[in-house]
Structure formats: C-alpha cells, structure tokens
Design brief:
Rossmann fold; signal; six-stranded mixed beta sheet
Length: 369
C-alpha cells in the first residue's frame, strides 16, 4: 500500500469539506422558490415592475385578450395602453391582436381562436365586421370565455356577454345639434358631406344616423342597421376611419359638389384628411367639420381650427372596465352583462346656444379618458 504523507492527508480532508459545502448549497437551491423558466414579472405602464398587491398576487394566472380593429388608430393605441395598465394593476397577463385595417374580420377571427387556445379567461374586442365576427365569438363563449365588446356593439348586440361603449348615436346627435345651431338660418340650405366608416358596421351607422337626427332629419331610428338619408347630404364616402382615405373622400366630394359647407366624419383621422383636402382647395375657412373621438390630437385640431367640434369618448375607461370585469369573472365567478355607457362630451371652443359642451381645456385634460 502506498505511503501517505501528512500533506496528502490534509489535502484529502480539505477536499472532503468543500464537497460537503457544495452539496449543501445544491440542496438549498433545489428547495428555493425560484420563478419557472420563461416567466416574467408584471410591468407597470411605465415599464417597471408592478408593486405587489393582494390583487396582483391573485391575478397572476389570469390572462385577458384584447383585439382591436387596428393597432395604428390613436384611439385603439390608447385603448391598448389602458388595458395594459389595468392588467398590470391586477397582476394579470395581457394578450393583444389587431386587424390589418378597419374591416379586417379574418384577422380578428384568427385572434379569437388563438386566444381561446392559449387559455384566456376573457376577450375584449372592438369588432371590425359586427355581423361576421359573431360565429367566432359564439365559439369562444361556448368554450367558457367571457367576451366583452368595447366601443362597437356586435350585431346583434347580445352576441357578446356585455358592451362597454360610448352611446354612439348620442355622440352623433351632439355634433348634429351643434352644426345646426352654429349654422343658424343657413342650416336649411346646408350642403353636407358625410365621410363614413364602412357599410353595415354598427358604430358607423349609429354615428351617421345620430348626426342626421341631431341636425333635424325626422324619424331617424336609433336601432336602424342602415344609413339614414337626408336630401341635404350631397356626397357620402367611406373612409375606414383612415386619414389618407378621408382626404381622398373629401377630394371626391368636392369634385361632385364644390359648394359643400358642412362635413361630418366618422372619426378624427378622417376629419384631418378632410381638412387637408379642403385647405388644398382653398375652402378650409368656408366649411364646418364635426367629428367623433375627442382624442388628444383631435382636441388640438379643435384648438387649431381644423375641427369645429368633436364628441369626446373615453377608451381608457372602456379598457379598464373590461379588464376588471374579466378579473372578477376569473377570480370570483362574477359575470357582467348588458350595456355600460362610458360617457360622451361635446368639445368645442365656440359654444352654441342650447347645446351642452365643454371647452378644449376640459377636452385636453380628459382626452382618451
């Protein structure tokens, strides 16, 4: 047997000690509560880690989906921000998707299917095609998913569990009443252009018909599924709520009738497009533009004189209410139903007698809601 010197024996003892320390460290690591691979901490709207709360702890396993019409329209950008902030506050996970353009139903159908497969507890959706999306929504609800429409009701409205939205007919009525009051005696001879959304989409029909009703068109049905008519409307064009298409639509209308002096637009991007076309034609000071959204840029458009009045709605409120409803459904079994009106306010710096409104200071402080 080989002879071991004292030095050899010392090295052996030290090595054994280090082996015991290593084994203890390994066992301690195995017993720790390390986060599973791939998990992420909830983030606040500012991008930092959300402060832990009892609600956040309870919401960690809840995923909510948000599907918007597009991810470029400022209205839907803000809605997404609001949903993320509300989800962060509850410790929930947010999945998002959007159509490529307003009216892109197939992308929304695919998004619903993907979210159901991913195990979301609820889906918030601003439907692009309010009829065509209904079968996909039914499948999601049949799978136990809570589905809430934001901003735009489906057709029929009860195809979703609930609706959180502006009263879009009222939003139209307000700008119609304002236009009539502002024009005064000239209202009876006004030549109107309507820059609409797309045929058959509920939100577009409601705003268009509300505007004509507010302007004095008789017997307009708030529940109608098609555009109301008025002989004073000399041109109607679809814009998909898009600024470039709004400009083209206004150019087409001016070619059809250069005497147009009142323009209704489905939203503010379309209004800015219309203003660009009017300015290029040297007519921007002769035409009133009224619109809907009341976004921060839209309110600035009122300040700058591009839009005379706009009906302000509140997408951040819609998103927050929707996320909280999904949280309550997933954590408590509470199921929301019916329609919740998230409010609308007419914004203008040129108040009209008999029409309730707020100025642009209020509009700026409350833009997006």
């Amino acid at each position: 047997m080989a002879y071991r010197t004292p030095a050899h024996r010392w090295v052996k003892r030290v090595g054994a000690a280090w082996l015991v320390i290593a084994m203890l460290a390994f066992l301690a690591a195995c017993g720790s509560s390390a986060a599973p691979t791939g998990s992420t901490a909830p983030t606040s709207a500012g991008g930092g880690a959300a402060a832990p709360t009892s609600g956040a702890a309870a919401g960690g396993d809840i995923t909510v989906g948000l599907i918007t019409k597009t991810d470029t329209n400022p209205f839907f950008v803000k809605m997404k921000e609001g949903a993320q902030k509300a989800a962060d506050a509850k410790g929930m996970k947010l999945m998002t998707a959007a159509g490529k353009t307003d009216g892109d139903n197939q992308s929304q159908v695919t998004a619903i299917e993907n979210m159901v497969t991913a195990g979301v507890k609820g889906i918030l959706i601003t439907p692009s095609d309010t009829k065509a999306i209904v079968p996909a929504i039914k499948k999601a609800r049949d799978a136990g998913v809570l589905v809430i429409a934001l901003d735009t009701p489906t057709d029929p409205q009860d195809a979703t569990d609930a609706l959180f939205a502006t009263d879009n007919f009222k939003a139209g009525v307000l700008i119609g009443q304002y236009a009539k009051a502002t024009l005064g005696d000239k209202a009876a001879s006004a030549k109107i252009a309507t820059l609409d959304l797309l045929p058959g989409i509920t939100v577009g029909v409601l705003r268009h018909n509300g505007f004509l009703s507010g302007f004095g068109t008789p017997n307009v049905d708030p529940k109608a599924g098609t555009y109301a008519e008025n002989a004073q409307v000399v041109c109607s064009q679809d814009t998909e709520g898009n600024q470039a298409k709004g400009q083209t639509a206004m150019e087409n209308c001016l070619q059809k009738n250069p005497d147009i002096n009142l323009v209704y637009t489905i939203n503010e991007p379309a209004a800015f497009g219309a203003y660009t076309a009017l300015k290029a034609a040297g007519k921007e000071k002769d035409v009133l533009i009224v619109s809907v959204d009341g976004g921060c840029q839209g309110v600035k458009g009122v300040v700058d004189g591009q839009i005379v009045a706009t009906s302000q709605q509140y997408p951040l409120k819609m998103a927050e209410l929707g996320v909280n409803a999904v949280y309550d459904f997933a954590s408590k079994g509470t199921k929301v139903s019916g329609y919740t009106d998230t409010g609308v306010t007419l914004i203008t710096d040129k108040a009209a007698t008999g029409v309730d409104s707020k100025d642009t200071k209020f509009g700026t402080e409350n833009c997006w809601g």
